[in-house]
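To whoever picks this up:

The parser on our side crashed when reading a file containing two proteins. I've narrowed it down to the boundary between the first structure block and the second sequence. Both blocks are reproduced below exactly, byte for byte. First block:
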Amino acid sequence: MRVIIEKDYKAMSKKAALLVASQVRLKPDSVLGLATGSTPLGMYDELIEMYNKDEIDFSEAKTFNLDEYCNLSPENPQSYHYYMNDNFFSYINIPEKNINILDGMTDDVKRECIEYDMKIKRAGGIDLQVLGIGPNGHIGFNEPGERLNVKTHQVDLAEETIEANSRFFDSKEEVPKKAITVGIATILKARRILLLASGKNKAHAIKETVSGHVSTQVPSSLLQTHPEVTIIIDEAAAELI
């Protein structure tokens, strides 16, 4: 596990974008696992800027997003379909057929989960998985618990996660209570993992991720078992390590 501490959010985002760009340049048909939330936004902005300067080409890349809220249509501004198009995909040259995001509106969640895992397998697996992290150590929407579901599955969001994500909604009551998420096993099968964190509210989670006991109560701690993990954080998120 390699930990890179950058001065601030902008420097962290630039460093993360350089790692993703390097992956795509070395392997143009890379399979990228992508994350949402506020943390990766700076990285996406940097990648868009690189694309506009003809420094990176996404025409052969494939992407798989980590998760999606249940019962939010792709047109809903709070859905992760909307997020990805609004913040990244609309500005680069990735073919629509190469974009994969879970269907939160499905009436057969079990089938959607099985098919998503099969799509990842048929694509050859994830070359580089980008992760954010919740204050409680969740990655994707894999919440702390006595057991973790290793495959793509539906999850009841923890109260702490609902509270944290309420800043994106008009009220806490509007935050969906369920989501579909890629499981821990699929994340850990990625050839390389890049985890990003910014701000003091992530400092405890980063400490547990880097040096805590490996436990399902802190899902991100399981990254200690992976041979190729890079963690890029700003100074505020690094204050406890």
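<<boundary where parser fails>>
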Amino acid sequence: MIEKLKAMIGRCIIAAVSDKSKTQTLQIEAFAGDIHDEVERLQQFGFSGVPLDGAEGIVLFVAGNHDHPVVICAENRSLRVRNLKAGESAQYNSSGHKIVLYHDRCEITTPRFVVDAATEAVIKAPLIELDGEVVGTKSAVFAGNVADKGGSHTMQGMRTTYNGHTHHENDVNGETAAPTQQM
């Protein structure tokens, strides 16, 4: 019985991957020289990835039948996100992109981040800090004040100053009236 169980579960090296069909298929080497083609790789729902050639996996030979193996997981040791604490998780790829779910935050590392939302994208946070240029193709509307770099001048403050300002007239030594066109 133990020998039969040993023949059902093993380690494998992934030699090639095809991700074109509904179920990903692999070419694997299960035991020294035991090559299998078109081996199905079952993946966790909601996650899909293509392991690199040379990745390691766990192969099952259902009912000990070596004619129809199934790979249930694959790992690239050199790329795996490490030093996570219990309950934390990560998703990553071979280009260095990663999403890490820590207990106190979520970090996304990527050279370019694109959100393509059909109706709207909403961020709810007491503070949003942007470290870089902000470029838009449409107008921006804020319910609160917009302040300058130092925070001492707001759009509302500049509007109030403009709407009430006057000029000293040199020819009559008096003040002009406030602008008739308000900002």
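After patching the parser it read the second block fine. The longest strand covers residues 9-18. Residues 115 and 122 are 11 Å apart (CA to CA).
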